[in-house]
Amino acid sequence: MRETSNRVAADRGLVAGLSEAGLKVTQHFPTLIFSLDVPGSEDLNAHLIEAIYAERERDTTGVRKSNFPELGSWHSHVKLHKDVTFAGLVQHVDGVATLMCRELGYHTSYRLKIGTMWSIINPPGSSNRAHIHPGCLWSGVYYVQAPTNAGRIEFIDPRTQNLMSPAEYIPDTKRPRSCWTKVRYKPVAGRMLIFPAWLYHSVDPNRSKAKGKEADRIIVSFNLSQERRR
Predict the structure, then answer these.
(1) Does residue 189 belong to any structural domain of this protein?
(2) pLDDT recorded at residue 79
(3) In the prediction, which pLDDT does 23 show?
(4) With contact defined as beta carbons under 8 Å apart, do 207 and 123 qualify?
(5) Which DSSP symbol is given to 107?
(6) Residue 83 to residue 8: CA distance in whole angstroms
(7) Strand locations in 22-127, DSSP E?
(8) What pTM did the predictor assign?
(9) What domain range includes position 92?
(10) Cβ atoms of 34 and 92 closer than 8 Å
(11) Domain CATH number, residue 65
(12) Residue 112 domain flag
């Protein structure tokens, strides 16, 4: 107790004569995550659910990426954006990409174009391992169906030095956002997230208690790259 009191007194001595108003903090190199709730998504999602299950029936094996097929997860091929069935969603992605180009000040001779697009169905118990998306600028996910406890997406601090030698913080106290080492987003049907392709992310296990197909977590993901306008 005496040691703690001495330390507190010493800390007070260090800040004597200093003002919090005089301490300036400048933040650089932010990690951006864009989000948008697609208007009228109920009809779009109903159409996508039917199309995605039909695609799974056509290609029952699917592919293995960050998913776990042995746990029932299904991952489609990566060219869904070329299928007219998904044109409605592609139109929304293109619209958001245009807004991002304006926000980020990208050269107007270029546009953000979908390079790959795929769907994943995660039944209860399924998840996705941490991964990145090489070969593109931005990656995104659109939530088609997201029952309660379907599994949050987790983004991990890309500054690996913070993971090698983490700081200690006051317990049971909310730390500043700039000091977070991970952040999770709850899936919401009709919501789109777009994030840097180099940002490591994973998906928590689906713990839904819903019945049948209503328990499935269904998403469509995509990658965006800059392409010169023709």
Answers:
(1) yes
(2) 98
(3) 87
(4) no
(5) -
(6) 65
(7) 34-37, 74-75, 110-122
(8) 0.91
(9) 30-157+179-228
(10) no
(11) 2.60.120.620
(12) yes
Look at residue 13 in the predicted model and tell me its pLDDT.
58
CA distance linking residue 33 with residue 178, whole number of Å? 14
Cα 84–76–91 angle (5° rounding)?
35
Number of domains forming the structure of the chain = 1
User: How much is the pLDDT for 182?
Assistant: 93
How far is Cα of residue 92 from the mean position of the Cα atoms in its chain? 17
Q: Is residue 167 part of a domain?
A: no
Residue at 162 is within a domain: no
Q: Are strands 191-196 and 34-37 parallel, antiparallel or unpaired?
A: antiparallel
Backbone angles phi, psi at 193, to 5 degrees: -115, 140
pLDDT at position 165, please? 86
Cα–Cα distance for residue pair 186/65, rounded to 1 Å: 22
Q: Compute the chain's Rg from CA coordinates.
A: 22
Non-local (6+) Cβ contacts of 203 within 8 A are: 66, 122, 127, 128, 151, 152, 153, 154, 217
Residues of the chain with pLDDT under 70: 1-17
Give the SS3 label for residue 52.
helix
Cβ-Cβ contacts under 8 Å for 178 (sequence gap 6 or more): 27
Predicted confidence at residue 4, as pLDDT, reads 55
For residue 197, the Cα-to-chain-centroid distance in whole angstroms is 10
Distance CA 181, CA 223 (A): 24
